[in-house]
């Protein structure tokens, strides 16, 4: 097949990026090309993937600027949409796969595209009635389908027609199973954002007198005050903070940690970082929100905590982990890796997308 993939333009798409959507796009392209398909990727300058062709839209530094209360990502995304329309109609692709966060922007112009369109939905847009009503005013085109990244997101969507779900995948070779035999510290790893719950993770470790490393960058100014007021006061000689330091340090943190604590405060549509931890053999303790129950097997690869139990629920789950015998704990670590090998590889993800592409192309041509 000849496949066009629209990626984000706020960051280069390359191997081992820290953004979940960029990582997904990189691996999707890799999987499609490895199966013998021709792929054109629309992306930010500096992107380096296995795509057959790259169409560079803009300098990502420009796309993240703002001026007069206007985020430049919107006009630059519309520039991307314009280039996509011109290119796909001229070069006769079999399908367009839209894989950027603000995928809804392309729908305003989908009637101009004369091939099937698949949107992967990475956010919870379609769980909100007001957004759905607004989107509905555009008019859904028969050549558009929507793919959610988890069964949970799929089930909560107000969209009911032309909808599918495919779980994300990772490159398990990049996150090998830990060979450590001693694990003392816990880890929280994500971007600094109240929705990701670093303050709750820190409080839980402090309450139990356990060591924890919080690792992540503050990539939005509005979260600096949250860090200064809600996270930094919790730091101590046992609860440490470090900015994200690159892939090797990320792997090291997962491999040496007793568990990844992830007290998310929203309905996370998927959570690649959870799968990366499990691939490393590291159990995950998380609130049972969003797709967590599709990724974590409670009691086997970590613990799911009722969100209503709050901080105390996270503390109790950490106590459970601490109470495991050495043999029980190592069995859990082995279960973590095995679950990812079975369910969450990028190769599996790409094969499922290829099958869906063929289904949509046949529907479009019938």
UniProtKB/TrEMBL annotation:
Residues 18-173 form the Glycosyltransferase subfamily 4-like N-terminal domain. One of its GO terms (molecular function) is glycosyltransferase activity. Residues 189-334 form the Glycosyl transferase family domain. SUPFAM superfamilies: UDP-Glycosyltransferase/glycogen phosphorylase. This is Glycosyltransferase family 4 protein. It comes from Candidatus Falkowbacteria bacterium CG10_big_fil_rev_8_21_14_0_10_39_11.
């Amino acid at each position: 097949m000849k496949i066009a993939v629209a990626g984000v333009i706020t960051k280069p798409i390359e191997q081992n990026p820290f953004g979940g959507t960029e990582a997904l796009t990189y691996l999707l392209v890799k999987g499609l090309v490895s199966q013998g398909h021709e792929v054109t990727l629309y992306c930010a300058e500096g992107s380096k993937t296995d795509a057959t062709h790259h169409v560079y839209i803009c300098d990502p530094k420009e796309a993240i600027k703002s001026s007069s209360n206007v985020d430049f990502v919107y006009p630059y995304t519309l520039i991307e949409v314009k280039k996509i329309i011109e290119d796909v109609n001229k070069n006769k692709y079999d399908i367009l796969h839209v894989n950027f966060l603000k995928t809804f922007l392309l729908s305003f112009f989908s009637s101009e595209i004369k091939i099937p369109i698949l949107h992967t939905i990475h956010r919870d847009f379609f769980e909100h009635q007001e957004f759905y009503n607004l989107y509905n005013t555009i008019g859904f085109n028969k050549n558009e389908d929507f793919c959610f990244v988890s069964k949970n997101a799929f089930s909560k969507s107000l969209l009911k027609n032309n909808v599918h779900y495919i779980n994300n995948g990772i490159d398990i070779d990049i996150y090998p199973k830990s060979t450590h035999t001693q694990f003392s510290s816990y880890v929280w790893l994500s971007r600094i954002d109240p929705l990701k719950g670093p303050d709750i993770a820190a409080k839980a470790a402090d309450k139990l007198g356990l060591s924890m490393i919080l690792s992540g960058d503050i990539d939005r100014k509005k979260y600096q005050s949250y860090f200064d007021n809600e996270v930094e006061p919790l730091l101590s000689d046992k609860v440490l903070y470090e900015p994200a330091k690159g892939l090797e340090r990320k792997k090291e943190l997962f491999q040496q940690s007793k568990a990844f604590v992830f007290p998310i405060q929203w309905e996370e549509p998927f959570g690649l970082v959870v799968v990366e931890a499990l691939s490393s053999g590291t159990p995950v303790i998380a609130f049972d929100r969003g797709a967590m129950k599709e990724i974590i097997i409670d009691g086997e690869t970590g613990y799911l905590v009722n969100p209503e139990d709050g901080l105390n629920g996270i503390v109790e789950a950490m106590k459970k982990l601490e109470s495991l015998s050495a043999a029980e704990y190592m069995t859990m670590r082995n279960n973590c890796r095995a679950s990812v090998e079975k369910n969450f590889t990028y190769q599996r993800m790409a094969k499922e997308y290829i099958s869906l592409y063929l289904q949509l192309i046949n529907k479009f041509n019938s």
